[in-house]
Design a protein that fits this description.
With about 240 residues, the protein is mainly alpha-helical. About 60% of the residues lie in helices and about 0% in strands.
């Protein structure tokens, strides 16, 4: 727990040092086939550029990765390996407010949310073109096999951080009394990507910023709010 708090503090420091706020996404709030948001209308400027290679912030990133590599446990690596698909069940199955197995209607809605988030993350990754940390520093050895974990070459922002936080924000809106639990699970899923060596801490911060922007955009889409009502009807009775 202490190790996680230390790294979360480091990530916050990176955010404060960057001094750049995420810009509002230029999203058309229309429903498109298979999407809540129009993937082509997303603004790259929703998050700032990553730290430049060799900059002070980049050195903080790399130092944190080496620190985690030296002290991570096998249990932490195993937990990261169990979340490689960034699915709802992988990240929130242990704290889900829905019946198990996840109802098909709920699964379809979360899959659609993930698809929208993934497409935006991919567009921003392609724009900024930041390589994975282990590609930039051969002394970093991820404890997730890049081939088995389906890890692409680009790192910024973190898709796991974005997807897990969007899911957590949705769950927190549905069950406000459990908000802290859901947000903690999202933070854990994001941090696992740093612990396992496949993301820089600043990738995580960027993914969280993007998630906050996307969630605010989702809430403006009638099709999404309609599906939120469906999710609410599927919750376990308290």
């Amino acid at each position: 727990m202490m190790k996680r708090k230390l790294l979360l503090g480091l990530i916050l420091s990176i955010s404060l040092l960057s001094g750049v706020s995420a810009a509002e996404g230029q999203t058309k709030h229309l429903s498109h086939a298979g999407h809540y948001l129009d993937p082509g209308a997303q603004s790259i400027s929703q998050i700032p550029p990553p730290p430049a290679d060799g900059s002070d912030l980049d050195k903080i990133d790399m130092a944190a990765l080496h620190e985690w590599q030296n002290k991570r446990t096998q249990a932490e690596c195993d937990r990261a390996k169990s979340e490689t698909s960034a699915s709802y069940d992988e990240m929130f199955g242990a704290v889900t407010p829905f019946p198990k197995p996840l109802p098909k209607k709920a699964a379809a809605i979360f899959a659609k949310i993930k698809s929208d988030t993934d497409e935006t993350v991919l567009a921003i990754k392609n724009h900024y073109n930041r390589q994975r940390p282990f590609k930039r520093d051969s002394t970093l050895k991820p404890c997730i096999d890049p081939a088995l974990g389906k890890i692409g070459p680009l790192s910024y922002p973190s898709g796991h951080a974005a997807v897990s936080r969007v899911f957590a924000l949705i769950l927190a809106g549905l069950v406000p009394a459990q908000k802290d639990i859901f947000m903690a699970k999202a933070d854990e899923a994001a941090l696992n990507r740093v612990i396992s060596g496949v993301h820089h801490p600043s990738d995580i911060e960027a993914g969280k910023r993007l998630a906050d922007n996307l969630y605010s955009q989702f809430l403006k889409v009638p099709a999404f709010t309609k599906d939120l009502n469906k999710l609410h009807s599927l919750l376990l009775k308290q």
